[in-house]
Fold these 4 entries.
Entry 1:
Amino acid sequence: MSREALQDFLRAIEHHQGLRRDAARCSDDIELLALAQRHGFDVIQRDLRDDAQESAITRWFKTSRIQRSFQSPPSQSRPS
């Protein structure tokens, strides 16, 4: 549930100017987590770490030469 809270918090930052301004003032993860919690989002340090790791993996797959081998082939429609 905590990762969902991180996604909700990021969406809130995108949509609320005041929250976006407050987030921009945060100088480190601890301040950002405190801001999230003050606004009712149950975000923890592990969520930030997991999100960073997932983002790095996603970027790697987007640039990898083996990317296509993990994609499903497009479905082919056959006329009846």
Entry 2:
Amino acid sequence: MMILLLITATLFTMIGTAMVLLDYNYYNGLQYLATALAFFTTAYIIKVGKVDLDSATDNNHTQIMAGFMITVVALTITFVALSIKGLFWAVGITVFIIGMYNIYKK
């Protein structure tokens, strides 16, 4: 899980930076950068040992993976309106963070 988070966060950092600096697509670029920050932070917390994914329940794993997938899909789809895309992104990142918080507080 940590390697997947690091790869995705690195790619999202590059894409977000390019969108903000070169494409002037600030809204989507900031979404990519905020997502990369959340993924880097989560990978750091896992690496330090504050979150033990092995002791998490299946429900918590499902929350984290669902949030991860919704976030990634919401950022990569281009055929929907910007407002719907932002809503899906917000739901995905919220579900991801809540899943991590549920594991962290145990």
Entry 3:
Amino acid sequence: MTKLIVEFLGLTTLSKAIGKSIVIELPEGSTVSDIFPWLTSRFGKKAASALLEPSGQVDDTIQVIVNDEGFLKRELWGGRLLRNGDTIKLMLLVGGG
């Protein structure tokens, strides 16, 4: 199993429901994409409404940072293998003017 720290930034509803950070364990060989189904299966509607569009896809406003390496492009999520001890930040990215 791969133990990870997942932090939630700007996701107020989710942070109030499960905390600002949690430790999760995923099977070896898991990728960034695997975090979302784990969260929604574990925390149900609160996680789904904070992270997913009604279609079930990850909301376009959600961004991911792995180990403070900068934003990970969405098309790379499925190929980014997670390692034991990784810190994953899930952020709500909003624009303003």
Entry 4:
Amino acid sequence: MSAEEHGEVYAPDQLKPTNRRRAQRGAIISAVVLLMFLWGNQSGNTEKVWLVLIAAGLVAVVIGDAVLRKAGLRPND
């Protein structure tokens, strides 16, 4: 199979970069929504543990990205 059969081929530098601020805000808003699920009709604590861990993971990714960019280990797009 050749490239013509698959359509256009893009190099990574030809694609439009994602909006980093929008992605960070989306992750923080998602973490807040997950934490709002703590007040529900759960009868056990297993759901609460998963909600907190996933929300903490999202926040850790945002903070880790900011620290790496500040240290110059990731490019500022």
